Amino acid sequence: MDTNNNKVAVIGCGIAGPAAALFLKRIGWDPVIYEAATTHDDYAGLFLNVGRNGLRVLKELGIDQPIRSEGFEMRVMRFRNGKGKPLGEVGHMEGEPQGYTVKRGYLHRVLRDEVIRQKIPIVLGAKLVRMKNGNKGAELEFENGRTEAARLVVGCDGIHSSLRKCLLPDAPQPQFTGLISIGGFSKGVKVPFVPGVQQMVFGKRAFFGYIVQPSGELFWFGNEEVKGIPTRKDMLAISQAEWNRRTAELYKGDDPLILDIIRSTQGDIGAFPIYDIPPQPTWHDGPAVLIGDAVHATSPNAGQGASMALEDAMMLTKCIRDIEDLERAFTTFRSLRHERVERIVRYSRTLGQRKYAANRVQAFFRDTMMPLFLKSANKDSHSWMYDYRIDWEEHVTQITGALDKDG
């Protein structure tokens, strides 16, 4: 690496961006994070799961303990129908947790605090609009008129990535899964705290899930099937009064506890359309590469989005560290990652499709078959997902044929 030109522009300050910046600094690069938002909002979004595979990446960065301390252990998911009939459970109370559930903003803050501690610059209000390849890297232009040059660019700016649009304008576009996710945080509902257990309900019209924190605060979410292709802007245009009316209708006739939880929501009900991204044949162009949701966004049903972003940041850095030529490093990175992430995207979408039943007949067969499905799922420990490990000390060797971007 030319130590006189080792600046890396990291686009996005969510989860993948700070993690990539921290790893890249470790191997001698000078990262700068460019974030489109003008302020850090630690209360944006709802909550997410960090699987134990993602925790291992945070442990390598030395910042896993705050997540373990603050988060809710994920061990068992208990399922019932809207009338309260138990359908079974998946998971095990013993052994290592599958992961931890934390507020999204908290994970962002933990990562960002470490970035600040290591004196990695964060530039706010920097929305990328153009990128072109230069002689020794990339030239970047931002919406506010700012221009920058960098030898390496890492796109971590999410499912609607500005960098992806610049690099790969003909790439497959995000696809709506047919579901929206609603959720919030509730207090004052008398629900017992059960360590390690998430409660999942197949209602008549929509799916509902919740966990209870030791403090008594509840994290809840619901999934509703909708027509059309809604956007986040569409969701924000709906008033809170309408969301209250809509959720009351959605869970009418189901376990009354569901509406008690929703009515006790502190603050707004959040609503988000659920998208994922079809397989992308190309993950990079020139000195720029995409990671995380920018290139393989998955729906939240499998709880692996954050962990995939963290894994990407670590694996990409290893490839750059061990393979001198960036082109070869990028293509090796994709070769090492694409099968795993595409499998998780498919698996997560399949889980989403099982969450709703269009009529009573489908609901009957779902409730009849679900115990068998959950019993089978318990035999498959999902070790392929949770027990995946990246060894920082292990050397990466260029994979034969990695220069074929479409392979």
UniProtKB/TrEMBL annotation:
<protein>
    <submittedName>
        <fullName>FAD-dependent oxidoreductase</fullName>
    </submittedName>
</protein>
<dbReference type="InterPro" id="IPR002938">
    <property type="entry name" value="FAD-bd"/>
</dbReference>
<dbReference type="GO" id="GO:0004497">
    <property type="term" value="F:monooxygenase activity"/>
</dbReference>
<feature type="domain" description="FAD-binding">
    <location>
        <begin position="7"/>
        <end position="168"/>
    </location>
</feature>
<dbReference type="InterPro" id="IPR036188">
    <property type="entry name" value="FAD/NAD-bd_sf"/>
</dbReference>
<keyword id="KW-0560">Oxidoreductase</keyword>
<keyword id="KW-0503">Monooxygenase</keyword>
<dbReference type="InterPro" id="IPR050493">
    <property type="entry name" value="FAD-dep_Monooxygenase_BioMet"/>
</dbReference>
<dbReference type="GO" id="GO:0071949">
    <property type="term" value="F:FAD binding"/>
</dbReference>
<dbReference type="Pfam" id="PF01494">
    <property type="entry name" value="FAD_binding_3"/>
</dbReference>
<feature type="domain" description="FAD-binding">
    <location>
        <begin position="282"/>
        <end position="345"/>
    </location>
</feature>
